[in-house]
Amino acid sequence: MTAAPDDVGSTLIAAERQMRGFRKARHARRTELVEDYVELISDLVADVGEARQTDIARRLGVAQPTVARMLGRLADDGLIVKRPYRGVRLTGAGERLAAESRRRHRIVEACLLKLGVGSETARLDAEGIEHHVSAETLAAFERFLAETPND
């Protein structure tokens, strides 16, 4: 007799729970690129006054045609405004998305640092985790940070 899903000793979880987990991960992967782009565009505009396609490509380590396609998608989604022969700028919706992504990144990174992860590893890991963390987990991270004494 084999163990039913979720029984003690079974490594298989219930199909519905597993499906929700995979669905959540796929959604996070789809939004990850969009969030990375709007966050980078926001940073470039704040630091150098504009976000040019060449700068975006260089910082993301991708080809300019890849950036051009994504910028078209971001424009279609109402997150950026493209200006011919000039840089792009974020719309209000793009700014809000960039700010939320940056906030999640900071919380995750601070939590990893508080756990003793090295600064460079925490920065790199937070870059991936920020896109996958749930609101519930993020709130728990914030409580952990607030309740844990500073060193």
TrEMBL record:
Gene3D superfamilies: Iron dependent repressor, metal binding and dimerisation domain (1.10.60.10), Winged helix-like DNA-binding domain superfamily/Winged helix DNA-binding domain (1.10.10.10). Keywords: Activator, Cytoplasm, DNA-binding, Manganese, Repressor, Transcription, Transcription regulation. The keyword Transcription applies. PROSITE patterns: HTH_DTXR. The keyword Transmembrane helix does not apply. It is found in: Cytoplasm. Pfam families: Fe_dep_repr_C, Fe_dep_repress. One of its GO terms (molecular function) is DNA binding. It comes from the Bacteria. Belongs to the DtxR/MntR family. Homodimer. This is Transcriptional regulator MntR. It comes from Halomonas cerina.
